[in-house]
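lol ok so funny story. i was supposed to be doing the assay writeup but got distracted and ended up predicting the structure for this chain instead. priorities right. anyway since i did it might as well share w the group, maybe its usefull for someone
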Amino acid sequence: MRFRLKSGSNLKWLYPGMGVKRWLLLLLLGLFFLSLGTSYVYVRAYRAVEFPPPVSSFVYYMTLQFIPHLLRGLILGTIGISMVAVAVFQLNKSLLSVFQAPGQGNLVDIIYQYRRRSRGPKVVAIGGGHGLSTLLRGLKEHTENITAIVTVADDGGSSGRLRQELGVLPPGDFRNCIAALADAEPLMTQLFQYRFGKGAGLDGHTFGNLFITAMAEVTGNFERAILESSRVLAVRGRILPSTLENVTLCADLREEDESGEGLSRVEGESKIPKVGKPIERAFLEPERAMAYPEALHAILEADLILAGPGSLYTSVLPNLLVGDIVRALRASPALKVYICNVATQPGETDRFNVNDHVKALEDHVGRGVFKYVLANSNFNVKPPPNWVSELVSFGDSPLQGYQLIRADVIDPQNPWRHDSKKLAQILMDLYYRESGTRHIDVG
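and the output, tada:
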């Protein structure tokens, strides 16, 4: 059941979960007993004490003795309650304004949103690249109980150089997730994503990658570096690696030779799409990489598990190729959704429809891991000039063994990507509908 509540009203202090009503009731009870005790003294003085003429005239008008008793009580009570309400409101405003950043909006809205998100479902998002960060950017408006499980197979660009030269896990996807979940000032987020363009040693590196790498050196390990970096940018949720092992993503590619059709092997996540040949199989080296224990714990405790969006073979599958991750997914009672890309990826999923994406997923992790498949239904968009991708269609045959959710999740400005707000809202609606959980939405 969903309730739509208008924002911008002080009545939000009385909404469920704000933690205010109990203390307000205690305040009112305290004032009641204080007034009751004062009234006994007042009645005693009124009946027994005789004031001299100048004072008695003042007391007569101050205590409204010229008005009937019932009306007198209502007037004095209303004045007292109004004064208490104004005093408490202004006192809270004065004290809490110190902790309220400029431009954050109404204080009651900030507190209400925080309380609502803190009670949101436990969501695990599995993937990497821009797709995962897009999803996280939308999810953080609905819940703070987010765990992002990120691939560590990236070996291209700045991350690849740092991985090769310093032996750290690739920080790039972790940096994107931190920026997406950050609740810090926009300037800090922009700084974290800043990419150097000059200098022989810094060219191509991002500040966030260097920051995480330096933090790993200072703290002694990569996991602690991600945790401390997340604290710097006030991240809503957690960001965990799928494994801590130094894995390499490999792929067997189909190609025709003199004897018919053969296979060639490519090693390295960044090299696979560049070859541009159909992918027969993707796998990790070493194949039996151990999963990160905290990632397994998050999966087993989750209410909602999401795989994708993102590059199927180089962002989503590298996490699912860690054997313990898939076993934990099968054991988890959570609602599990595979989010299909809105557009094909050159060199990786050329001419793939929704069924092809799901079949590739099944070929690597088996059937029955995910119950739902979410796919884009909006094809009325204008692609950019010289676009080499195409929107992912539904295919000719129905999807067997899954509940297919068709929805407009496309970003009109970037038709090859998901819209973070649309995507998150559809997923939250699905969760609350299927779980039967009551949902309080602000609108």
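The two ends are 15 Å apart (CA to CA). The longest helix spans residues 21-48.
back to the writeup now i swear
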